[in-house]
Every structure is written in C-alpha cells, then in structure tokens.
Amino acid sequence: MSFACIHLAMAIDKKEKVGFFYSEAEENLPQIAWCGSCEQWLLDNGEEWNEAFENLADFKILCSDCYDEAKEIQFGTDKI
C-alpha cells in the first residue's frame, strides 16, 4: 500500500507526466508521492504539510504496483 496525490494518481491512466516527488518511507510505513504542482505549493508555503496541503493533494491509496507504475511513467522508464 502507498499514497499518491490525486494529480499523480489520475496521471497513471493517461500516462501523463506531472512530476514525481516522494518522501523516504521508514520501514513499515507506506510510501507517499506527490506531483510537481503539489511540490510547488509546498515550496511556496514554507514546505509545511498542513490541512490546506492535504486538501489540495487529496491523497489516494495505491497498491504497490500502481505506485511503481506512476514512478516509471514520471521518470520516463516505463515500457508501456
């Protein structure tokens, strides 16, 4: 199980590049990723994860295969 912002999750089906930023997950914690727009919001707002950011990102649960697919699409290594 992992989490991705809504923008990144929606980009999987379209194979659309929206950027891929992620936190280094500690052992036994799910991976979390977000798109370039969400990253820019964080940079513009002191890099603070707060309720406003969580509302913007609207994180969705992804299985590990979908998370890996999103990462492959964003980094241009997908073979689909």
Topology overview:
Layout: E1 2-4, H1 6-14, E2 21-23, E3 31-34, H2 36-44, H3 51-57, E4 60-62, H4 64-75
Parallel strand pairs: 1-3
Antiparallel strand pairs: 1-4, 2-3
Helix pairs in contact: 1-4
Task: Kindly list the characteristics that best describe this protein.
80 residues, alpha+beta, 4-stranded mixed β-sheet, 4 helices, globular
Detailed description of the structure:
With 80 residues, this protein is α+β, with helices and mostly antiparallel strands. The protein is 46% helix and 16% strand. A four-stranded mixed beta sheet has the order 2-3-1-4. The chain is globular, with a radius of gyration of 12 Å.
Summarize the structure.
The chain is an alpha+beta fold and 80 residues long. It contains 4 helices and 4 strands; from the N terminus they run E-H-E-E-H-H-E-H.
Question: Which value, in Å, is the CA radius of gyration?
Answer: 12 Å
Helix content: 40-55%
Quaternary structure state of the chains depicted: single chain
Number of helices: 4
Give the biggest sheet.
4 strands, mixed
